[in-house]
Amino acid sequence: MNVSLYQKLAITLTALFIFIAGVFFYWGKHLEEQTRFESQQRLHLSLAPSLVRDNPLLQQGVYDYKALKNLFHTLMVLGPAFEFYLLDQSGKILTYSADRSLVKRDHISLKPIENLIQYRHPLPVYGDDPKHQTRQKIFSATPIFNGSTLMGYLYVIVAGERYVDTYAQVQKESKVEVSLVMLAIGLLALFILMLWLFRNITSPIRLLNIEMTLVTKQGFSQKDVSLNQWNEHSKNEVHQLGVMFHEMMGHIDCQFEKLKRVDLQRKTLLAEISHDLRTPLASLHGYLETLSLKQNDLSDKQKQAFLATSLKNASQLKLLIDQIFELAHIESGHVSIQNEQFNVVEVLYDIVDKFNLSTKAKDIKLIFDPTRHDIIVVSDINKLERVITNLIENALRHTPAGGQIALELLLTSERRCQISIKDSGVGINPQELSQIFTPRYQATNTMKVSHQKNIGLGLSISQKLLNLMGSQIAVESELGVGSNFSFELVVA
Q: Any stretches that span the bilayer, and where are they (predicted)?
């Protein structure tokens, strides 16, 4: 059975209220009974002593049981609520006013009688009821002496069986009915109030549930769903949940849009890379096919030229494939960073030495002149080398002969240092700076060199590696002046 939260709350609170009302009802009834018995016993404490003091039969200490029985009967007629019993020193019942067939005990415990006589126990004090094996009732009692000798006790049940039956009948006909009516009215009023309160409490939850259901049916999109306006300043937890739900849906929509853009970029990138792969592959295939078919008709010089071109296309193809795999590996999230402490100056000198031949061949100066040689950083040395290599290669492609590239290392604070790669190349259009880290993007003023083709993945790889290393790459550029790529590292 499907039960809503509102129904569960209503059923639970109703059951709880009935339980609490029952506890209070019985507790109140018990308290009223205790109070009534205490007042009755306090009122009749002197009953038994007065009877012994005023009756000659009891004063003498010599009992005429028949006369006493008649006396008790007469007193019981005058006071139907009382029951009279004469006990010996041990508590044995000697005579009484009640019908013989109704008396179930032949002994009465003397301890409650002693507690009452000596005021050793707060009222009400309950004593044994001779008409029942286990029941106890309030009583009045007094010892009977013959001179200084204890002869027994006069034991008077204050609220006798006739009184209890009469009181129960009256209570049944009046107070019980009134109590039940009041309880029923109270329950009904509380039930109605409770339903109203619960409806107000659960109404926002129902609205939130409706919103979630509609959004789910729309494929977790809120574009075509009319959502409620939740009060973000409310202290009501449901309103706070509603606000967070709207924020979450906005975030999900934003993520969906990003996924769509990324998917579109991936398709575009795949199409463009396919073209880049096809071009050197087709050229490689063509030259090799020509060599295979016309090798006897070609001179040695032509064969060497064909082989050189094929090797160049094979190298270009390998470079493209390596960069595609590297970018895919980074984006897959499987790249781990292995940080260690090392002297960054030594690493930079090694990288500069690696470019000596290529810079001389292009007549470009690569300058590195640090002011300090003891800067220890915390980073991944292999990935740092990859980033700086990519940035220097990018600077070489965009710097004409006679230009220069400066590798700089500066301490920006006690815990940070900055590495910069500055070139005197063609620069980048300011409108294109935000796009240069997009895979395979090439600025409009990229130098076109016939013997070298740029596939546009180096900057994207560098940016992603730096992000994994906890750093950000920054770029400044001016057309015709050059570009400056920089990032920071943590100093040990």
A: 6-27, 178-198
Q: For the chain, what are the domain ranges?
A: 44-173, 237-330, 336-491
**3 state SS for the chain:** CCCCHHHHHHHHHHHHHHHHHHHHHHHHHHHHHHHHHHHHHHHCCCHHHHHHHHCHHHHCCCCCHHHHHHHHHHHHHHCCCCEEEEECCCCEEEEECCCHHHCCCCECCCHHHHHHHCCCCCCCCEEECCCCCCCEEEEEEEEEEECCEEEEEEEEECCCHHHHHHHHHHHHHCHHHHHHHHHHHHHHHHHHHHHHHHHHHHHHHHHHHHHHHHHHHCCCCCCCCCCCCCCCCCCCHHHHHHHHHHHHHHHHHHHHHHHHHHHHHHHHHHHHHHHHHHHHHHHHHHHHHHHHHHCCCCCHHHHHHHHHHHHHHHHHHHHHHHHHHHHHHHHCCCCCCCCEEEEHHHHHHHHHHHCHHHHHHCCCEEEECCCCCCCEEEECHHHHHHHHHHHHHHHHHCCCCCCEEEEEEEECCCCEEEEEEEECCCCCCHHHHHHCCCCCCCCCCCCCECCECCCCCHHHHHHHHHHHCCCCCEEEEECCCEEEEEEEEEEC
Q: How far apart are CA 110 and CA 154, in angstroms?
A: 11
Report the CATH superfamily, name and number, of domain 44-173: PAS domain (3.30.450.20)
Q: 78 vs 71, 73, 87, 138, 467, CA distance in Å?
A: 11, 9, 22, 19, 106
Task: Tell me how far apart the terminal alpha carbons of the chain are, to the nearest angstrom.
Answer: 65
For the CA atoms of 312, 314, 319, 324, what is the dihedral angle to 10 degrees? 140
Distance, in Å, from the CA atom of 256 to the CA atom of 418, rounded to the nearest integer, reads: 36
HSE, side-chain direction, 13 A CA sphere, residue 219? 4
Token pair listed for 72? 């008790």
Give per-residue pLDDT as tens, 220-270: 676 666 677 777 777 777 777 777 877 787 788 788 888 888 787 677 767
Q: What is the pLDDT of residues 178-195, one digit of tens each?
A: 666 777 787 778 778 777
Instruction: State the pLDDT at residue 391.
Output: 92
Distance CA 243, CA 240 (A): 5
Fold of 336-491: Heat Shock Protein 90 (3.30.565)
Q: For residue 384, with 0-12 CB atoms within 10 Å meaning exposed, 13-18 middle and 19 or more buried, which class applies? A: buried
pTM, two decimal places: 0.46
Q: How far is CA 378 from the centre of its chain?
A: 37
Strands 416-423 and 482-491: antiparallel
How far is C-alpha 207 from the geometric centre of its chain's CA atoms?
21
Question: Cα–Cα distance between 127 and 116 in angstroms, integer?
Answer: 9
* CA–CA–CA angle 129, 135, 136 (5° rounding): 60
